[in-house]
Amino acid sequence: MCGIVAYIGHREACPIILKGLKRLEYRGYDSAGIALLNGDLKVYKKKGKVSDLENFIGDQATHAHVGMGHTRWATHGEPNDSNAHPHYSTSKRIAIIHNGIIENYAALKTVLQGRGYEFLSDTDSEVFINLIEDIHKNNNCSLEEAVRLALHEVVGAYAIVVLSEDDPGQLIAARKGSPLVIGVGENEFFLASDATPIIEYTNEVIYVNDYEIAVIKDGKLDIQTKEAVRTTPYIQKLELKLDAIEKGGYEHFMLKEIFEQPRSIMDSMRGRLIADQNHLMMGGIREYANKFVAADRILIVACGTSWHAGLVAEYLFEEFARIPVEVEYASEFRYRNPVIRESDIVIAISQSGETADTLAAIELAKSKGATIFGVCNVVGSSIARASDAGAYTHAGPEIGVASTKAFTAQVTVLTLMALMVAEKRGTMENSRLRQLMVEMENIPAKVEQALKLDAKIQHIADVFKDVPNFLYLGRGYNFPVALEGALKLKEISYIHAEGYPAAEMKHGPIALIDENMPVVVIATKDSSYEKIVSNIQEVKARKGRIIAIVTEGDDVIPDMAEFVIEVPAADEALVPLISVIPLQLLSYHIAVMRGCNVDQPRNLAKSVTVE
Ligand code: M6R
After folding, report:
1. Ligand 1: does its nearest atom lie under 6 Å from the Cβ of 303?
2. 79 exposure class (CB count in 10 Å sphere: 0-12, 13-18, 19+)
3. Tens digits of per-residue pLDDT, 455-473?
4. Which reaction does it catalyse (predicted)?
5. Where are the beta strands (DSSP E) in 462-605?
6. Nearest Cα to 192, choosing from 610, 607, 554?
7. Strand 325-329 relative to strand 279-280: parallel, antiparallel, unpaired?
8. Which atom, in ligand 1's list, is nearest to the CA of 607?
9. Three-class DSSP category at 272
10. Rounded distance from Cα 254 to ligand 1 centre (Å)
11. 452-598, which class in CATH?
């Protein structure tokens, strides 16, 4: 969490940094700050959004060609002006912006306090900059060397940028565990947590690796490891387009991203599936096809919505490819001494590719010799780079904190993977495989059709916007969809919601049902349709208010439900790609009607780079 951005070159730094911070605001938005170097090293920072910082700066003089900025998601210390970044060192001659967590900050702080350093904030980052200052002074070394030595002292994760009043033409950055991208322009450099603040100016970027220090001085970039070994930067060309990170006329990014799904699902399949040519190929898997054929277990690690996509994948891989699958919360997996075998295939799913727990789970599985497949959206992200192979989801940038198009893109890619592995293992009837390939190609059009339900869903949202609780039920492939629907609602509207397998309801949650409880039941026509109809009866018998997602033409459930939302028919294995759409729209409209900040819900951040 937290977004960092920095600039050094011939342009005015302040507007570039403020615009960059707005693009990174999805990473954290409780306070923001900026440091500008023009003779003096000046810091401006404020609790609140980047727009509050902008108002605070107002028409103060900001002329500078070097600067850095930060948008924060609080870890150490509450969101307020003094905990906002950048942080000065005690001498106020150097300053830092930091994304990550320094775990041994308390011990370092005690030592530094003993040496007379003063702390104006509760943050670990202020400890970091004073440590650098202490080393700089005591070792009589360059600032670059002081940063390098400090990296040996700190434990934890960081992407940092350091500026010094004594070295006005220099910018020092380093990373371990938190992302850092350098944009290379003509006699100018940009640094940021991701490429979105950079693409307007250059499409040439360098992804800084863990334990590397980048020094930009007098127009030149030098990258070395923590051990002072020089590395050759690899410049990549970005394909990202500016309009992909703008709202394009929609009121919120979330709504834009929901409506982008026909396109993003198509992009996830592009070049991988051509049904009439019998073409099904995931480049990333081809090389490892034999591993999949021989696999006797797949472990899936992920968090949040990506974990829900993993649950769908469990059903897909088990049904199609007959490989046992375990789906793990990355945060639990990494700390519970799991059994991992060299023959295991680990699929790590992450939109951002930066989720700290998922990354740590990968490292653990790698250390035991397992093969890692990353399913990531962000190209060049840490998880993508830490994986042995994988597949990008190609959903395009997802800015809304609530994940929507990333989920359907993940499910699309995982479906293609499962089909391809099934084909290689010979575990599926050829006719069913071909039928599913054709059906997959029809999914974008069906999603388009489901999006036409928007007005009806808006009406339902209006009826239920003030209730305190919701229950979501589904069976089979629709069980993960129920979990996802509940997560969407709670994270953006702050209404308590629970997702349950419909049959499990009678083992506890049924006690919650009365005439005030809305129950969203995903009851499309599938192999457990009759069973879920019985579950709906059980809810109805207790006067629950049923909102049913059904297959077009269903003539049974409409008699039982208060509201019915009809989605296009699809093979049950592919239905999550369609049945999730009304749930995304429902949560969106409820949140908007409740006056919630849909794109930046409280307490959350888009990429969770702390453990
Ligand atoms: O970037 P990731 O997919 O690894 O993120 C995982 C979760 O943090 C993320 O899905 C989160 O649950 C979203 N806010 C859900 O909408």
Report:
1. yes
2. middle
3. 999 999 999 999 999 999 9
4. D-fructose 6-phosphate + L-glutamine = D-glucosamine 6-phosphate + L-glutamate
5. 469-474, 496-501, 518-522, 545-551, 563-567
6. 607
7. unpaired
8. 1
9. coil
10. 14
11. alpha beta
Q: Which CATH architecture has domain 249-448?
A: 3-Layer(aba) Sandwich (3.40)
Task: Decide if 136 contacts 96 (C-beta within 8 A).
Answer: no
Of the chain, the end-to-end C-alpha distance in Å amounts to: 10
Segments making up each domain of the chain, as ranges:
3-243, 249-448, 452-598
pLDDT in tens, 83-108: 999 999 999 999 999 999 899 999 99
Please check whether residue 62 is in contact with residue 14, taking contact to mean a CB–CB distance below 8 angstroms: yes
Residue 239's region, left for phi above 0, alpha for psi from -120 to 50, else beta, is alpha
Nearest-CA residue for ligand 1 atom 14 is 402
Check if CATH label 3.60.20.10 holds for domain 3-243: yes
Identical topology for domains 249-448 and 452-598: yes
Which band of pLDDT confidence, cut at 50, 70 and 90, is reported for residue 205? Answer: very high
Q: Enter the DSSP assignment of 319.
A: I
**Cross-sheet strand order for the sheet of 189-192:** 40-47, 31-38, 66-72, 3-8, 189-192, 181-184, 204-207, 236-237
The string of DSSP codes covering 441-477 is: HHHHHHHHHHHTTHHHHHHHHHHHTT-SEEEEEE-TT
SS3 77: coil
Ligand 1 centroid to Cα of residue 424, in Å, is 31
Atom of ligand 1 lying closest to residue 383 CA: 4
Residue identifier of the C-alpha nearest atom 12 of ligand 1: 304
**CA 314 to ligand 1 centroid distance, Å:** 18
Rounded Cα–Cα distance for residues 479 and 473 (Å): 7
Q: Which residues are catalytic?
A: 2, 606
**Selection from 531, 513, 519 nearest residue 475 by Cα:** 531
In this predicted model, what pLDDT tens digit does every residue of 514-525 receive, in sequence order?
999 999 999 999
Q: What is the mean pLDDT of residues 217-228?
A: 94
Give yes or no for residue 238 having a pLDDT over 90: no
User: Rounded to two decimals, what is the model's pTM?
Assistant: 0.83
Those residues whose C-beta lies under 8 Å from the C-beta of residue 484, and which sit 6 or more positions away, are 305, 308, 407, 499, 580, 583
